[in-house]
Amino acid sequence: MNEIKMQLTEKLDGAKETERQHMYMEKAKGYVETLAGKLNRTPTCCVTTFGCQMNARDSEKLAGILEKAGYRLIDDEDADFVIYNTCTVRDNANQRVYGRLGFLNSLKKKNPHKKVALCGCMMQEPSVIDKIRHSYRFVDLIFGTHNIYKFAELLVAMFESKEMIIDIWEDTDQIVEDLPIERKYPFKSGINIMFGCNNFCSYCIVPYVRGRERSRNPQDIIREIEELVADGVVEVMLLGQNVNSYGKNLDEPMTFAQLLQEVEKIEGLERIRFMTSHPKDLSDELIQVMKDSKKICRHLHLPLQSGSTRILERMNRRYTKQQYLDLALKIRKEIPDIAITTDIIVGFPGETKEDVDETIDVVQKVKYDNAFTFIYSKRTGTPAAAMEDQVPEEVVKEGFDRLLKVVQDTARERVSLLKGQTLKALVEEVNEQDEELLTGRLSNNTIVHFKGDKELVGKIVSVYLKECHGFYYIGELV
Ligand code: 5AD
Ligand code: SF4
Q1: Can you list the alpha helix ranges (DSSP code H) found in 111-212?
Q2: Ligand 1 center to residue 375 CA distance, Å?
Q3: What is the C-alpha to C-alpha distance for residues 453 and 435, in angstroms, rounded to an integer?
Q4: pLDDT surpasses 90 at 331
Q5: Residue 80 contacts by C-beta under 8 Å, 6 or more apart in sequence?
Q6: Closest Cα to atom 2, ligand 1: which residue?
Q7: Nearest CA owner, ligand 1 atom 18
Q8: Is the pTM of this model over 0.90?
Q9: Tens of pLDDT, residues 188-230
């Protein structure tokens, strides 16, 4: 099988591009109908997401387009069309994709009409494309992060070709609005407010695979949220790699705090979350807006990465241990009921036991409500990958275990402080293990399980926090 590299189509303005993609959705529908005739049933599709909230949102866009084209969305990779929306932030994400591709191949052998597509961050890496072209030749369609809005057009190209279609762009400044989206939850939704990242932390591949920072126009964001609210959404999560630098490159610049104030005004919207904040850009204005807000949730994800100033410098994070601590403790003082969560990397090149001690010191002082700890993963092309003093695996493991223990102890201590309080929870689902229980999320992101009717899913209710079980509560509906 040969492959076809798509030509870059002439760039249209956003509205024209939307129109064009809707035309391709109609065309794709024709192909899906033909397939339905052959199968004698509605063709099914499955979207599998790896990675972060941004990818989860992108997957909803892929699902929206597939449904519009006439597929029935299912949660099973036995489907007639399967797409993997991949992540490449750490190497284990890549390995998982390769592992599962073998399984997809075996399914494809049983279903001659089955199509397999790959997209997302991992596809922006040339070495990955080479590997797929040579070792996974059954894949029908590959595209990257910059041209996801062209998915309908690519689907049509896939139906019209017997060869592997590959369309990867190096970058884009295009933001295409108003394409269909199939939300996973009817009552909550992620909203992209910006794309890409300009920070180039020395370990991180994201700026290379997601491109430069681009903010959406506030009017488009507000309109999208208003439409979501009209459609039953009560909680939104504003998404960006670094939401604190939102709006800097707009024709009429605006700050993230100002955007939040606009979102707050939307009637019917009950809760606002956002992700992720870079500590170097978190302003006093934002702290004040959060403090005064009735809707912004009491949760801030503030990645630390390392507590050692020396390592932070090598990571190109552009803050010191002391600056981070001052910021975190200021936030704790201004908004005492806020939960602060973080990301930490262990084993960055050159990291010593003393550096890990510095990180542990920050964890003990900030007392995170939750922390995601990662083992450093070498990403080809990043400055850190070329650093000579990579840390041996046993040393990394020792530091990681030591840190994890402190993180878990402090998180447990923080979460237990809520015991005996009655707080509002958004009911997210019926508990998977016990159908009598509902699962809700507090404003500060803590999970609570309690007895209740499934009719309450999507509603905000008051819950008495009765028993603390480490990271979650068992509560009672009030
Ligand atoms: N190795 C390990 N963790 C990483 N992260 C980003 N790049 C790497 C890497 N090369 C982590 C950071 C970031 C989170 C999303 O992933 O902690 O905040
Ligand atoms: Fe990666 Fe740093 Fe950008 Fe976050 S801010 S996406 S860690 S480069």
Answers
A1: 126-135, 151-159, 206-210
A2: 8
A3: 10
A4: yes
A5: 35, 39, 43, 44, 45, 71, 111, 113, 114, 115
A6: 376
A7: 343
A8: yes
A9: 999 999 999 999 999 999 999 999 999 999 999 999 999 999 9
